[in-house]
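Changelog-linked ticket: LMY7XDAE example.
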Amino acid sequence: MSARILDGKATAAKIKADLAARVAALKEQGIVPGLGTVLVGEDPGSQIYVAGKHRDCAEVGISSLRRDLPENAGQAEVEAVVDELNASEECTGYIVQLPLPRHLDTQALIERMDPAKDADGLHPANLGRLVHMVDAPLPCTPYGIVVLLQEYGVPLKGAEVVVVGRGITVGRSLGLLLTRRSENATVTLCHTGTQDLAAHTRRADIVVAAAGVPHLITADMVKPGAAVLDVGVSRVDGKIAGDVAPGVEEVAGFLTPNPGGVGPMTRAMLLTNVVEAAERRARERG
Ligand SMILES: Nc1nc2c(c(=O)[nH]1)N[C@@H](CN(C=O)c1ccc(C(=O)N[C@@H](CCC(=O)O)C(=O)O)cc1)CN2
């Protein structure tokens, strides 16, 4: 067997084409969606992702507000940028790129954001809404994973999903999203304290690997025909190494490439959240 590729790049391109039309309609009503990014320091991955997010904005007609700060920026300096974006008329949504340098208080910065402008869906008020299963901007990677699975007709209702990794941007939030009534999957959230990871992954219809451990998921850990999504990004000798080992494509029914799978979907869903926030603003204005 050779797995069907879950092509995130192609799916993201379709989403962006649809968003470009929605942005044009908003502009006719006098609303220009604007994405802000707050990037602190020189992390090479973060530099690449933020640059990609602004390229995407240009592609669909969203205006860009890029705020880059040096590695040694203090908490007060970053808070001032957050306050500025909270107040900015041009900024309809923004993100604080993670991870932040260790000397900064990430939690305090996220909590300082205006939840109505939280394009990442990571503010506690928005995650709380997700817990309560009410409408909120959804965290971009989990949102992208669900849309990608739906695009390829991978059934979620009743599926056994094993998520490896409990980080807030992917694992923990994905568990909340997949267990909503609209998705109705059964989720096992595995992490570094899990005993016998393979016993869990082997019975899963869908495995989402988001541990950041290169080649953690090997072919013998996958049920034949399962969908495997590789979220992990480690940079080994300048190349991306995912959490999924070579050979899994021989066993899995569906597999995301990495790069070209979940990453482009994360970016497409960020744009979706920005456009949805701008559309909400247009409705409120009447
Ligand atoms: N504030 C946030 N920070 C982070 C998030 C997030 O959702 N919000 N997620 C990750 C990184 N991430 C988004 O920022 C992200 C990861 C990967 C990609 C992407 O397009 N990857 C490309 C490859 C690019 C390359 O490295 O050459 C691909 O997979 O094809 C975009 C965004 C952590 N931080």
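Closing comment: Example verified and attached. The CA atoms of residues 104 and 255 lie 36 Å apart. The radius of gyration is 19 Å.
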